[in-house]
Amino acid sequence: MTDIGIMGSTMTSLTRRKDKVPDIKESFALPRSIVSVLRQCAKKYGGDSAPCLPEMLKYLWINISAQSKSLAGRKRRAEGMLSPEDWLNVVDEAASLGVKYIVICVGESFEGHPELWKTCHWAQRSYGIDVGIHTCASQLRKPELDELKRLEADRTWLFVNNTDLSAFEPAKKAGIKVLGAQVDHEEHSPPCDMSEQMLFVGPEGVLYTCGLVLNNDHFRMGHISERPLEEFVNDPALPHSIPKWAPHRENGCDACPPIMVKRMAGAPHAE
């Protein structure tokens, strides 16, 4: 197939995905994004002298922990929260901007998040992105352990409370890479410019400079439905760093992607 043909099939696949959330088995067969194909073409035909498409981002930090609530013992999706398809589209856009690492926060429970595993598989299989899952749960249930084992082992990390690390030994024995998520004030605090290579997306699709300032309107960048992620990244009028004076959430740096990536690089199994 010619390169034009590859791009055409890619566009068709992406158009189909707007109408239907792909089955995981189907999604593995889908080609990479248009931007990925363009990079391959530039490398193939232009060699080292070919202009590279800029990689604007390195990290995507998303929070899905408020996406469901219990009502009369049943789970239902809260109004205004992103759908599984929305999250796949966020990953597509982030990957086109150069993202290599994603951290997904699920809160205290993995339950009620059907988008979690689809998003992880899509990021890994379609774009080769490393995925870290941050949970405040004190232990893993068997269904969750089984789902983790279905992901790509070399691209999957589990970030947990430092005090709960010993409770996740069964996960480690099953081959899951587990690291402490907590970041204390001495290790990192504002001012911070690491957010310049990162986007944070809250459960309702609102973008913030960083998870540290979630729900702080001063650092609210907009909603994913308003414009492409690239425009948020390139808008100089938006806040792209955290000043020292910024009020921030306690434990807001927990599972911060740049900090977690440093820990991943220093982990024994990262060699």
How would you describe this structure to a colleague?
The protein is an alpha/beta fold and 271 residues long. The chain has helices spanning 3-19, 24-27, 34-46, 84-96, 114-127, 142-150, 169-173, 229-234, 257-266, and strands spanning 59-63, 68-71, 74-77, 101-107, 130-135, 156-160, 177-180, 198-201, 206-208, 220-223. The strands form 2 sheets. The protein has an 8-stranded mixed β-sheet, sandwiched between helices. The model is unreliable at 1-33, 49-54 and 67-77 (pLDDT under 50).
Molecular shape: globular
Q: Please report the number of helical segments.
A: 9
Total strands: 10
- Helices and strands, in N-to-C order? HHHEEEHEHEHEHEEEEHH
Distance between the termini: 37 Å
Average pLDDT taken over every residue: 78
Question: What spatial order of strands do you see in the largest sheet?
Answer: 7-6-5-4-1-8-9-10
* Residues in β-strands, percent: 15-25%
Helix percentage range: 25-40%
Low-confidence segments, given as residue ranges, are 1-33, 49-54, 67-77
- Rg calc: 19 Å
Structural class: alpha/beta
